[in-house]
């Protein structure tokens, strides 16, 4: 396979490459040339995130995609969470061979799931989700939330322009993205080859959950199907 296949993997809003690094390593081990750009402003400092726009995030990812296009025969784009919104924009703008969205928002904040997570966290004395909610509330400036919302509003009406093969992945117990987001993306995309895959468990950070291995294998299988078609 060599480096004929390239993959751009885009992390989420307020996050980092850490969110997607298991998938990056998995694909690299199987011969893919992988680029995981850090979106502009995502340094971990609230000040830096306050000073950027969603155009800056699109540009950060686009630069990585252009590198892959120049060096690979086939290029795939994967977007996690908000990264999926960016991935869809790039998949419409450029000719890519496959697109994957993982827990990407159309409808966000599953308040019922958040409340359950908080209650269960106190009951089980497992405070990981509670710490994650507190960290997000402290580290995300309002200006960045506005940019996220603007990116979502920009992306939603153009999903119908997706023509490349598409795999939509969603964990049902995601507390950040409502699962009907996946149904929306799947139904609106105007491509002949598209798949929708739900996982019962995995939370929002699916690639660092018990569902990660299954998700990675499903992504690789999807890519393999596309590669087989390209070789026929």
Counting helices, strands and paired strands, the structural category is alpha/beta
Strand order of the largest sheet: 2-1-3-4-5-6
How many DSSP-defined strands? Answer: 6
- CATH architecture descriptor name: 3-Layer(aba) Sandwich
Kindly, what is the distance between the CA atoms of the first and last residues, rounded to a whole number of angstroms? 16 Å
CATH level-4 homologous superfamily: Alpha/Beta hydrolase fold, catalytic domain
Number of helices: 9
Order of helices and strands: EHEHHEHEHHHEHEH
Low-confidence parts:
none
Q: Regarding CATH, which class?
A: Alpha Beta
Determine Rg (CA atoms, Å).
17 Å
Estimate the helix proportion, in percent. 40-55%
Largest sheet: 6 strands, parallel
Mean pLDDT: 90
The CATH topology corresponds to Rossmann fold
Quick summary:
The protein has 232 residues and is α/β, with parallel strands linked by helices. It is built from 9 helices and 6 strands.
Describe this structure in words.
- This protein has nine helices and six strands; from the N terminus they run E-H-E-H-H-E-H-E-H-H-H-E-H-E-H.
- It has 232 residues and is an alpha/beta fold.
- The protein has a single domain, classed as Rossmann fold.
- A six-stranded parallel sheet has the order 2-1-3-4-5-6, sandwiched between helices.
- Its EC number is 3.1.1.23.
- InterPro entries: AB_hydrolase_1, AB_hydrolase_fold, AB_hydrolase_sf, Esterase_lipase.
- GO terms for molecular function: monoacylglycerol lipase activity.
